[in-house]
Design a protein that fits this description.
Layout: H1 6-77, H2 81-108, H3 110-116, H4 124-136, H5 138-153, H6 157-179, H7 186-209, H8 224-257, H9 261-299, H10 302-336, H11 343-356, H12 360-375, H13 379-405, H14 410-436
Helix pairs in contact: 1-2, 1-4, 1-5, 1-6, 1-7, 1-8, 1-9, 2-5, 3-4, 4-7, 5-6, 5-7, 6-7, 8-9, 8-12, 8-13, 9-10, 9-11, 9-12, 10-11, 10-12, 11-14, 12-13, 12-14, 13-14
Length: about 425
């Protein structure tokens, strides 16, 4: 399952997961395109309110999937198949519990939740309409990512890719159906987003129900220490994915505070879509490599782990630089898709995207190192990097730099945060080598 040269394993595991996650992110972007063209600036701003919440849901699912996946890959590497099955079923129980809690609490506190996420009086009704569907259908979103991740750990990365991709394509079709022929407005866009993961789950379930791999549904012996271990090992993944939601939330707050208003929220929604594409490429490749890193850790093949990390570093940095060149040359055309009639908004988005993405080539390297350290069970290192690029540097920079240098500085803060995080990565990586010597 993990035989072959470094570049072959990279292509087998990293690329399918990246493609699957990329398609999964595209359905959020398609929502933005339909909303922008159909409902205009206010509709885009209302949808922007739900983006941090969606990212939190994905982060919770990835925490369970990654934590369980790390344990499962190690157990399969050591030929402990029965333990791997128990870990799989424990992860299913964790996600089901989270899904039920989100439905109950989310519907009870729907209005306060929308206000916390950045809803303004002008767009509150639309924001609530969109958010309700996301909350109510949240278990399917959780399970689409969980089952996809576990299928990948079970040696079926292409199945995970197909399931996520099919769910995304179905969402695009439903977007058109609900918003144009059925004229359901922003509720139609939200419903399409909510239904997409149902198709993904339907495709993935037979693999586990029909026992086509090492993992399948079985009677579970609940052990609290297994649940605790899943969340401890998965916490860096939660923070890594949670970064997108946290940064979006902080930016929404800063945009309103510094007077950019609805045009700023609408612009950041689309800039956020572009950010989502780039980060999804990195996250997909990093998550795809998790079973490889974990398996080699379980079998004690440290040299193969190190070779994979070095090869992946070159790929991640190259992809990051290439993405920024595309932004410099073609971002205006991307932004024009969402609201072609609003020239002011297009110019605003284009000018702000250049500083915003200037350091994103380093984001890929940071994400790779989080995945590497997490998969090799260096959880403290992985967690320190995850926290640095989400809860530490971006919020501090966003609150301090604009106050000193003016509101325009908020558009540079995310990239500066990635640069500072890379400094921490290099200290942890090469500092340890110095001590070993």
């Amino acid at each position: 399952m993990y035989d072959g040269k470094t570049h072959t394993l990279f292509a087998k595991y990293a690329i399918p997961q990246m493609i699957g996650l990329l398609f999964n992110s595209i359905y959020l972007i398609v929502d933005g395109i339909f909303i922008g063209n159909r409902l205009g600036r206010d509709g885009m701003a209302a949808a922007a309110v739900s983006v941090p919440f969606i990212e939190v849901l994905i982060a919770l699912s990835m925490a369970v999937a990654s934590g369980a996946g790390i344990i499962i890959s190690g157990q399969l590497g050591q030929k402990e198949n029965e333990k791997a099955i128990q870990t799989f079923n424990t992860a299913i129980l964790c996600s089901a519990s989270i899904g039920m809690a989100v439905i109950i609490l989310g519907n009870i506190f729907l209005h306060p939740l929308a206000e916390i996420l950045g809803s303004t009086p002008q767009i509150h009704h639309k924001a609530i309409s969109y958010l309700w569907y996301i909350v109510t259908f949240s278990p399917f979103l959780l399970f689409s990512f969980l089952l996809g991740g576990l299928a990948r750990n079970d040696g079926c990365p292409k199945l995970a890719m197909f399931a996520l991709s099919f769910g995304s394509v179905s969402n695009m079709v439903l977007d058109y159906l609900f918003m144009y022929p059925l004229n359901m407005g922003i509720a139609g866009a939200a419903l399409a987003t909510a239904i997409g993961p149902i198709f993904s789950v339907a495709i993935l379930l037979p693999h586990f129900l029909m026992k086509r791999g090492n993992l399948y549904f079985a009677r579970l012996k609940i052990q609290l220490h297994n649940i605790r271990r899943i969340f401890i090992l998965g916490f860096p993944s939660f923070i890594m994915e949670f970064t997108i939601g946290i940064v979006t939330f902080v930016y929404n707050y800063a945009i309103v505070k510094h007077g950019y208003g609805e045009i700023g929220l609408a612009a950041y929604l689309v800039i956020g879509y572009l950010m989502l594409i780039i980060l999804t490429i990195f996250l997909g490749m990093a998550e795809g490599l998790q079973p490889v890193f974990s398996y080699f850790t379980g079998t004690g093949e440290e040299n193969r782990n190190r070779d994979m990390r070095r090869f992946a570093t070159k790929v991640f940095l190259s992809v990051g630089i290439f993405c920024y060149l595309l932004i410099l040359l073609f971002s205006r055309y991307f932004f024009s898709i969402f609201n072609p009639g609003d020239a002011e908004l297009i110019v605003f988005m284009t000018s702000k995207s250049i500083p915003y993405f200037s350091g994103f080539f380093l984001a890929g390297y940071n994400i790779l190192m989080i995945s590497y350290w997490q998969s090799t069970q260096n959880t403290k290192k992985a967690l320190s990097i995850s926290l640095s690029r989400s809860l530490v540097f971006p919020p501090i920079l966003i609150f301090i730099l604009p106050a000193i240098c003016g509101g325009e500085m908020i558009w540079l803060c995310h990239s500066l945060g990635e640069g500072l995080t890379t400094t921490i990565v290099l200290i942890l990586l090469f500092g340890n080598r110095g001590r070993k010597r």
